Amino acid sequence: MAAGRVVNRWTEVIPGSAELICLELMRPPGNWNIDTVDAEPFFAGQRRILLASSGIHDPENLDDSLSRGAYSALEAALTRRPEEILEVVERAGLRGMGGAFFPTARKWRAAALEPGPRYLVVNAEEGEPGVFKDRHLLEDDPHRLIEGALISAYAIGVGQVYVYVNGQAHLSSYRVGRALEAAHEHRLVGDGVLGSGFSCEVEMREGGGGYVLGEESVILESIEGRRPEPRFRPPQVVEYGLWGHPTVIDNVETLSRVPAIISGWLGFGAGISPTEVARTKLVCVTGDVQRPGVVEVPFGTTIREIVVNMAGGPLDGRALKAVLTAGPSGKIVPPALFDRPLQPGDAEVLLGSGNLIALDERRSLLDVARRLARFNADESCGKCTPCREGASRLAKMIAGSADSESLKSISHELLEIGDVVTSASLCGLGRMAANPILSTLEHFSPAQIFETRRS
Ligand SMILES: Cc1cc2nc3c(=O)[nH]c(=O)nc-3n(C[C@H](O)[C@H](O)[C@H](O)COP(=O)(O)O)c2cc1C
Ligand code: SF4
Question: How far apart are CA 319 and CA 361, in angstroms?
Fold first, then answer.
């Protein structure tokens, strides 16, 4: 199997962090035996459902996927009424894994109630530095995603699915493209899916790549061929999406969980309960750790369990200073919160789309906050004033603070501007842009923010 070499854009934000090679990093260093791998620290504590055969199966071979049960959940779902599928996904409690954790079935049901035609868009953009869990799924198991998207399309009454892939993730688009070709040849996609009365086309679209490109209404603008900027809402996209028609946009991981929910409900496959499938999360762990990679863990797992136990903690016994959760517009979390369970909806320790970046004692928190603030300002599309002006102002102010005294003197103004950017911006990028600065000021004193150990 060809391993996917994916260089992560995090290297642009924190220099010196290792390049990431997704598929390679699924394995602990050295040779390992598939029968004993569960005992490896990287794997112990994980609940591998989507990743159960990761690194074992061949993502470019449909027959291999079929021999492992791919598309059997779709086949079973097509014998049930769409309403039954909606109810199962609702009872499982599946929530959007793109970071907002909105109840998936509620969105599906809202679109299903609107007059057709309806569309489903798979959000495979993932343009944030340090986030690569969807890329892993796209590279490792594209048929699972296609199967999940088809089940979702059947439940909602969708006849056209678009998989919107980040244009910089070449291996992802290659693997999805090959999987779609094979699925078409086997009549898994298109007219009369699996010989049923359900017809659904699935096509791939490649975006330009970039953080704001992952925002759902920006994807719609991009597919329609317009300048990629967020739309004003209401109307919500479930009522007025692609070309003005009801549209559901779901994250790659969300849809990839659907086949296991259906097979768990009907009691075949691995027989894992639908609730357990829905309460498990992929998390990328990277930065200053010994074993960076993607782990799959139950909700409630702590930062310490992932960063220290699974990923091995900082190199050479260095102390962990902080962890950035939820990407470049996430929060800098201090050691006092490392034992807090990671849960959807926790405003203090954001789980987001599932992303932990460890910062050891050599890192200057000021440097990290400066880089993140600059990144968020640069990624602003400029459509609304609070984000365009505010994010840029925050980045300049933090860049200009020369010592802890000067930082102390501008703290109040940083908090005030941060508050405006957070509350008045049009889309999630602006609403989260101040998070790194605000959380750093909340949890660390100006002296700690300037402290660095070079040893
Ligand atoms: C700036 C920004 C970037 C985003 N990037 C992504 C992304 O790369 N992938 C994703 O699934 N959701 C992303 N989202 C969230 C989407 O707007 C949307 O909520 C999500 O795709 C819905 O799918 P889900 O309900 O399955 O999570 C982003 C949101 C914002 C504001
Ligand atoms: S919040 Fe920022 S990224 Fe979002 S629309 Fe406004 S300017 Fe653009």
Answer: 6
